[in-house]
Design brief:
Elements (H helix, E strand, L loop, with lengths): L13 E2 L1 H11 L4 H8 L31 H10 L8 H4 L2 H4 L4 H5 L8 E3 L7 E2 L2 H12 L6 E5 L5 H14 L4 E3 L6 H11 L8 H4 L4 E5 L3 H4 L1 H12 L3 E5 L5 H4 E3 L4 H7 L2 E2 L3 E3 L6 H14 L5 H7 E2 L1 H10 L2 H8 L3 H13 L3 E5 L1 H4 L4 H14 L9 E4 L6 H6 L8 H11 L11 H9 L5 E5 L3 H4 L3 H8 L4 E6 L5 H4 L5 E6 L10 E4 L4 E5 L16 H13 L12 H11 L9 H4 L3 E2 L17 E2 L24 E9 L4 E2 L2 E2 L14 E4 L1 H6 L7 E5 L4 E9 L6 E5 L23 E6 L2 H5 L1
Parallel strand pairs: 1-8, 4-5, 4-14, 6-7, 6-12, 7-10, 11-20, 12-13, 14-15, 15-16, 21-27, 24-26
Antiparallel strand pairs: 2-3, 2-16, 8-9, 17-18, 18-19, 21-28, 22-23, 24-27, 25-26, 25-28
Helix pairs in contact: 7-28, 8-28, 9-21, 15-17, 15-18, 15-19, 15-21, 24-26
Pfam family, one: Molydop_binding
Keywords: Iron, Iron-sulfur, Metal-binding
Organism: Richelia sinica FACHB-800
Length: 754
């Protein structure tokens, strides 16, 4: 049954020696000692939402297992331990020079260590006092609430997230855009409708009881390496892993984990995939309807379970029963035999976890993709029991915590009531802007003040030219960050742009908390920054937000400066956020916890009738334009492919730590990974320089790399490739379709003739 495909990257396994080499290199740097001290600090990892850390120690997960750090974590910490940018730097380099920097070069400038402002008409950022920052903020926030917006990322704490949304609600604004709008919003929207809860129903302990994991649209070896340890252990106990991905990621075939050093040395790593399905991007619904059809034909449906615990299942099975195999296979590009084999593994396993990342959500029908996965889990009885269920794999360390704290435009009714009572008034009912709506509103001149708590709003969006133009219509933008990024030099406001330096998670002078993607709340100890006065002038995010609130409101309706005490903030959170009651005593008990009401080990769900709700998911009609749609002449050489954008192995979100991607064989950022057959069919050659054109722009001098990717599909790195396309959005969630973009790859006429 195992079909382990051959990688064309030149690597035998993911992880392994390159990871060890990187750790050694970092250890031998001047900051090596501080790096190891920080790795052992009692705080959650800065990287993915699977990260380790907290009160059990820097290398220990919630199950008490050791050696749970990865290279991504080391990269993130090493970047935060860089020296501060010297005071004269921004006087020396003008904005035009800074705009020539790459993402990696921006990050390597060092830590932001003092507040800066770009004033109207200026060509240089200049230092500014915190006193003037608060004066500007007071004026910028004292406008009509519908013209104020925020954007946030998951690098911050629960406490900062809670205070951010509390400030916005106190002003009467619901414009709380978040980075999750660009990635996992379909998971939250879809799962909430099906199960009444928008997060993973599987905790780490539950995952350890699984005998099958279906991993869809995820490059876990690069983006969630800790999950790989669980997959290795699952395979060792005889379980199966079905990987669904248009691109063969070598780490999903075989992975050498530092957590299992002897096995990695003796065997070169552990087998991961039992079955690897390379489907056409955007056809996930077709595949899952096909799985449902095959499960019906193999008599592997759990009818009694469906009758007892679900609603709407008859229509879903009827749709699968009557759709033709021809429609399914031609849409997803997989054979009936492949789908049947996968269905058999799922249907005959006892405890199946369905896990996915942005290969599922970043589509124009992302919510339907999530529905189709949930449907498959339900018709096989794999929801509401130990070792089984749905598990979205979130990419940023505390992005889920932000949603829990109310940083969302879709605020839960019970939170809304609690916040109304806390603030002494009804909350605004005006719909807020999610991220794409925010860009559209800014472009139309509807936003005057934008407060960005982390993140890179400019580079994370599709159509970078539109993002730049939209942000330039905003009067005042505050960027709260630890290091410079592309947005600080390209996403500039009409009047004034401020860069506000803050402590990172392991430097805060107070304790904070974060939430993992599997609903585990960690307590982060206070720390000390290596950036010291007088050269450094940093502030905590909690102090920044509460001081702005104090300037605006004084001590009404609550004592905002008292909220600078994060112990008090946690007490308030415990009273207003469902499932967070244990946060009130976490300072005394040091007891980290799983949020109540989210892990389902029995099929009773928090829906209106206690049953899971099943929705029919129509198979999409997928087409591609002709090269002439991109302006090519009929006789001009070129090929239209489906482009998916993503991170490199040395990258976290928009931050690039290393330009090369060893595992994919991509030596730099300006590459396009293509199938060898497509390269040959188009009359092109590996390593040839080509132009890649989308519906919003083009990139020249892009190197072709032949790789293990499905025919008709290509891969490029973001944020660089975001300039190419506008991207359609999922109407149910607002998330852009980064994983299915039509582009044309061709040789310029002048290059052909040269």
């Amino acid at each position: 049954m195992d079909n382990l495909p051959h990688s064309q990257s030149g690597s035998e396994a993911g992880g392994g020696l390159p990871v060890i080499q990187y750790w050694v290199e970092q250890t031998l740097t001047p900051q090596g000692l501080r790096l190891w001290q920080t790795l052992n600090h009692h705080s959650a990892c800065l990287s993915c939402a699977w990260g380790t850390g907290g009160q059990k120690g820097g290398f220990v997960n919630e199950a008490g297992e050791y050696l749970q750090r990865c290279a991504k974590s080391v990269e993130a910490i090493a970047a935060e331990l860089q020296p501060g940018i010297k005071p004269g730097f921004f006087q020396q380099y003008c904005l035009h020079q800074l705009q020539q920097l790459t993402s990696q070069e921006c990050d390597r400038l060092g830590r932001l260590s003092y507040p800066l402002i770009l004033r109207p008409g200026a060509s240089h950022y200049e230092p500014i006092s915190w006193e003037e920052v608060f004066q500007i903020a007071t004026k910028a926030f004292s406008i009509a609430p519908e013209r104020i917006a925020t954007y946030s990322s998951g690098r911050s704490s629960n406490e900062a997230a809670y205070l951010l949304q509390l400030l916005m609600r106190s002003l009467g604004s619901n414009n709380l855009a978040d980075c999750s709008d660009l990635c996992h919003a379909p998971s939250t929207v879809g799962l909430k409708q099906v199960f009444g809860s928008g997060t993973s129903m599987v905790c780490l302990e539950s995952l350890k009881h699984s005998d099958c994991v279906v991993l869809i649209g995820s490059n876990a070896p690069a983006n969630h390496p800790r999950l790989m340890n669980e997959l290795i252990q699952l395979r060792e106990r005889g379980g199966k892993v079905i990987v669904i991905n248009p691109q063969i990621e070598i780490g999903l075939v075989k992975f050498a984990s530092p957590a299992f050093p002897i096995k990695s040395l003796l065997t070169g790593g552990s087998d991961i995939s039992s079955l690897y399905l390379q489907l056409i991007p955007g056809s996930d619904v077709a595949l899952f309807v096909g799985l449902q059809k095959s499960l019906l034909e193999q008599n592997l449906i759990k009818n009694k379970y469906l009758s007892a615990y679900t609603q709407g299942w008859e229509a879903v099975l009827d749709y699968a029963r009557h759709i033709s195999w021809h429609t399914i296979t031609t849409t997803c590009g997989l054979s009936q035999e492949e789908i049947t084999a996968a269905a058999y593994l799922i249907g005959t396993s006892q405890r199946v976890v369905f896990a996915w990342a942005m290969g599922i959500t970043q589509h124009s029908n992302g919510v339907d993709n999530v529905f189709s996965i949930a449907n498959t889990a339900l018709i096989t009885g794999n929801a509401g029991k130990l070792g089984a269920g749905t598990m979205p794999i979130r990419g940023h360390s505390n992005v889920q915590g932000f949603g829990s704290m109310g940083v969302t435009i879709n605020l839960r009714q019970e939170i809304k009531q609690a916040l109304s009572q806390l603030l002494g008034k009804s909350l605004s009912e005006t719909p807020g802007y999610h991220t794409r709506d925010l860009i559209e509103a800014a472009q139309q001149g509807k936003v005057d003040t934008l407060f960005c708590l982390g993140g890179n709003l400019y580079a994370a969006n599709p159509n970078l030219q539109q993002a730049k133009q939209a942000l330039s219509q905003i009067e005042t933008i505050f960027y709260v960050s630890t290091k410079p990024n592309l947005g600080h030099f390209h996403g500039l406001a009409k009047q004034q742009t401020l860069l506000l330096p803050v402590f990172n998670r392991f430097e805060n002078p107070h304790k904070t908390t974060t939430e993992s993607g599997n609903n585990f709340v960690r307590l982060n100890d206070e720390g000390k920054s290596h950036l010291q006065p007088p050269e450094a002038d940093l502030i905590s995010e909690v102090e920044l937000i509460t001081e702005i609130a104090h300037c605006l409101h004084g001590e009404t309706p609550i004592n905002w400066r008292k909220l600078q005490d994060t112990t008090y903030v946690r007490e308030v959170i415990a009273k207003t956020i469902p499932g967070y009651q244990q946060l009130a005593t976490i300072d005394q008990t040091k007891q980290e916890f799983i949020i109540a009401g989210r892990i389902f080990n029995e099929p009773k769900f928090p829906t209106a009738d206690g049953k899971a709700q099943i929705f029919v998911t129509p198979i999409p009609q997928l087409t591609l334009p002709h090269p002439t749609a991109f302006g090519l002449a009929e006789n001009q050489q070129g090929i239209v492919v489906i482009l998916g954008t993503g991170r490199s192995y040395g990258q976290h979100n928009t931050v690039v730590y290393r330009s090369a991607d060893k595992y994919r064989g991509m030596p730099h950022r300006h590459c396009i990974l293509m199938n060898p057959t497509d390269i040959k069919t188009a009359g092109l050659k590996p390593h040839q320089q080509v132009t890649v054109r989308g519906d919003a722009g083009e990139l020249k001098n892009i190197e072709i790399i032949a790789g293990a990717i499905r025919e008709g599909v290509a891969f490029m790195f973001y944020p660089e490739a975001n300039v190419l396309f506008t991207a359609s959005t999922d109407p149910k969630s607002g998330t852009p379709a980064y994983k299915r973009v039509a582009v044309c790859v061709f040789v310029d006429s002048h290059r052909q003739g040269s």
